[in-house]
Amino acid sequence: MSESRYILGVRVDATSYQRATDQILDWAAQRLSRLVCCASVNNIMAARDSSDFRKVMASADLVTSDGMPLVWLLRGLGIPDAERVYGPDLMPAVLEAAAKSGVPVGLYGGSAEVLARLVERLTARFPTLNIAYKESPPFRVPTLEEDERSTQAIADAGVRILFIGLSTPKQERWMYSHRGRVDAVMLGVGAAFDFLAGAKPQAPRWMQRNGLEWLFRLATEPRRLWKRYLGQNPRFAVLALAQVFRERSS
Fold first, then answer.
1. What is the spatial distance between Cα 121 and Cα 124, in angstroms, rounded to a whole number?
2. Would you tell me how many other CB atoms lie within 10 Å of the CB of residue 215?
3. Cβ atoms of 215 and 64 closer than 8 Å
4. Sign of CA dihedral 198, 201, 206, 208
5. Could you tell me the maximum CA-CA distance found in the chain, to the nearest angstrom?
6. Spatial contact of 131 and 105, defined as CB atoms under 8 Å apart
7. Per residue in 97-143, pLDDT tens?
8. Domain coverage including residue 180
9. Which residue of 31, 37, 39, 134 has the smallest Cβ count within 10 Å?
10. pLDDT per position as a tens digit, 52-80
């Protein structure tokens, strides 16, 4: 079992790519309905600002440290070997393991164009991968009838691992509302669909390692992301440093 710490009231698990992949494949083999969240600063601050979303995050069976700030916080809170488990890197790791084990997977999210490109690239990269289901949902909230059709289609396809490529907090709320209704491991991977499909550029690795990915994404999508990064990051830094100081002092 991985160690975990609470960062501003949200549990974050100090896992690794291998441990997370093994756990997801084990749950999938048991046909369990599970919720996996790749948490960034955005998740933590959204949970701090919304009691409803705190419940969603608290319900997750596995919460990985998707962003470097959370890795640094885990280390500062007594887990020196904490490492990043980033959604766009975890997704290929799980897909490779699923392909080797013959586990059917599903894809839910992205535009129709992005989803088609993603399927094409994944099929080329993992020839034995069984993509049993794929859907590009509407950008609006689906109707009850549409949601029921999607849920039934996922079940009929025999999906055991379902990748959710929506934005936070939309994807986490979707997974929470489908716990027990979707008998699969639901893995929220955010922008991974766009990155792996080649629809959006990823930050260079050196920027990712140094916690500067937010700056790259802000530069490439300023109108969409400026409120998230310029509004949340400074507030998170102050609150997180205060938490570390308090816990070390006590």
1. 5
2. 14
3. no
4. negative
5. 54
6. yes
7. 999 999 999 999 999 999 999 999 999 999 999 999 999 998 888 88
8. 3-249
9. 31
10. 999 999 999 999 999 899 999 999 999 99
